[in-house]
Design a protein that fits this description.
The two termini are 48 Å apart. The strands form five sheets. Strands 15, 16, 17, 18, 19, 20 and 22 form a seven-stranded antiparallel β-sheet that branches. The chain has a six-stranded antiparallel barrel with strand order 1-2-3-6-5-4. Strands 8-9-10-13-12-11 form a six-stranded antiparallel β-barrel. Helix content is 21%, strand content 37%. The protein is α+β, with helices and mostly antiparallel strands.
Length: 484
């Protein structure tokens, strides 16, 4: 609005107010006073006032944290060898034919490797925590303290599943960190990392917690703490401190397309690391429990398909034969809502809970099945126990937009299925949802289907959406489909 138009508008408003006040016999001042004190309409009072601003938090004293606990943070240097394909074994090498048969050629050649990382002292007697990948393939590990003393370290044990390793140096009366509780950590809380990025010792960087309970590919046992703290190669194994100076995690991974920091770093919760440390110190190894299920994340469409009030929990997509899950009565299509009293908000919460339990422990699960809750109890097996591959049921065709056929006996045997329908052509709603030719539709909304008429019946019952249990290769997943 131009200035002249704005002035005119304000002038008109003033005339109207003055006229209204004059008509009532009030002065403009009286009129405004009465308007402010007048009761509000029902429509106006029904609207809740906006929440007020949050009082700013006092920034932590990072300087004090570094001065007090920095001496307990160590640098780690490793030496070892890694086997690589020798020249003459690589078919992509145009000169390989000239080296075949020569002495020293063929097989794998050991190559010297050196690495750097960080760690922190948790015991005055020289117990140190770091990442398993920092000391992987290391034949010699050297720990450098903040006062520049160096010690040869023994690797008491490491656990690749959680990426935690425990070292021991021959020293006493060492400075130690204070250990905190990651469960009390919230998104938005201040955090501080100390380590040796690129070999620069005792480097401190700060930020906030970006998310909790992050599941990363290949790290099923760890509910990572995500932060925006600058973490780079060499920071691995170093401590993540909360605002009070207590260690709440071990800096472990970064998400990067360049190899350097890009705003996403991940730390192993310290309670996970301590559980691993206690087992290693006591026995020299780590045992993880196993339930024997594959789970996936729920979205709104899948939640609606299973008549869940909201998309939460871990959706069971397959069950290993003769596993604790199978013996407890779990089925594909069940949604695990809680585990031993702990809410399972996301699918990644379940593997972390199970992996940190011990073989033989009892697992009490609240499960959503057929629109209601049930309680099942399983006795967990060890991760090394041999369990048979997954086995499910059957399904397929209708308003999905697919052409299907029953599995042959040979295909059923190969896929470890008792039945099912192979997708020969995929179009319409199924194709839009990601169903491909060659997929085997096993069930709809958790109910196995073994024939085309059965499939059509289940689709009619499903209404506007369906959750297809699909087997692709050796993997089973639920695919949410919005039906036309």
């Amino acid at each position: 609005m131009k200035l002249r138009q704005l002035t005119a508008a304000l002038t008109v408003a003033g005339v109207l107010v003055t006229s209204a006040a004059g008509a009532a016999g009030w002065s403009p001042k009286e009129w405004f006073s009465r308007q402010e004190s007048a009761p509000q309409s029902a429509a106006a009072t029904a609207v809740a006032p906006a929440p007020g601003p949050v009082a700013p938090a006092t920034a932590p004293n990072y300087r004090a944290i570094v001065e007090r606990f920095g001496p307990a943070v160590v640098g780690i240097n490793t030496e070892g060898t890694m086997k690589t394909a020798a020249r003459g074994d690589n078919d992509d090498d145009p000169f390989s034919q000239f080296f075949r048969g020569l002495p020293g050629r063929g097989g794998q050649a050991p190559v010297p490797v050196r690495g750097q990382g960080s760690g922190f002292i948790v015991g005055q007697d020289g117990i140190i925590l770091t990442n398993a990948h920092v000391v992987k393939d290391a034949s010699e590990v050297t720990v450098k303290l903040s006062d520049r003393r160096e010690f040869k370290a023994r690797v008491l044990g490491s656990d690749p599943a959680t990426d935690v390793a425990v070292l021991k140096i021959d020293a006493s009366k060492l400075p130690v960190v204070t250990l905190g509780d990651p469960k009390r950590l919230g998104v938005g809380d201040y955090v501080l990392a100390i380590g040796s990025p690129f070999g620069f010792e005792q480097s401190a960087t700060s930020g906030i917690v970006s998310a909790k309970g992050r599941s990363l590919p290949g790290d099923a046992y760890v509910p990572f703490i995500q932060t925006d703290v600058a973490v780079n190669p060499g920071n691995s194994g170093g401590p993540l401190f909360d605002a009070s100076g207590a260690v709440v995690g071990i800096n472990s991974q970064i998400y990067s397309q360049t190899g350097g920091y890009m705003g996403l770093s991940f730390a192993i919760p310290i309670d996970v690391a301590l559980s691993v440390k206690d087992q290693i110190v006591a026995t020299g190894k780590v045992s993880h429990a196993r339930l024997g299920v594959a789970v996936q994340e729920l979205n709104q469409t899948l939640a609606d398909s299973f008549k869940l009030p909201q998309p939460e929990g871990a959706l069971v997509s397959s069950i290993d034969r003769n596993s604790p899950a199978a013996k407890a009565g779990l089925q594909p299509g069940d949604v695990i809502l809680s585990y031993n009293g702990q809410t399972i908000a996301r699918s990644g919460d379940l593997p972390a809970q199970v992996g940190l339990a011990k073989p033989g422990d009892q697992a009490k699960m609240e499960v959503w099945r057929n629109g209601r809750k049930e309680t099942l109890t399983a006795t967990l097996a060890g991760s090394s126990d041999k369990l048979a591959a997954a086995s499910p049921a059957s399904a397929a065709r209708g308003k999905l937009g697919v052409a299907v056929r029953p599995l042959t006996d040979e295909e059923r045997q190969e896929a470890h299925l008792r039945g099912g329908l192979v997708v020969e052509q995929a179009g319409g709603a199924a194709a839009r949802s990601g169903v491909e030719p060659g997929d085997i539709i096993v069930a709809i909304n958790g109910t196995p289907v073994a024939s085309v008429p059965e499939l059509q019946k289940r689709l009619e019952q499903a209404g506007g959406q369906a959750a297809l249990l699909v087997q692709r290769g050796e993997t089973q997943i639920f695919v949410p489909v919005k039906l036309g």
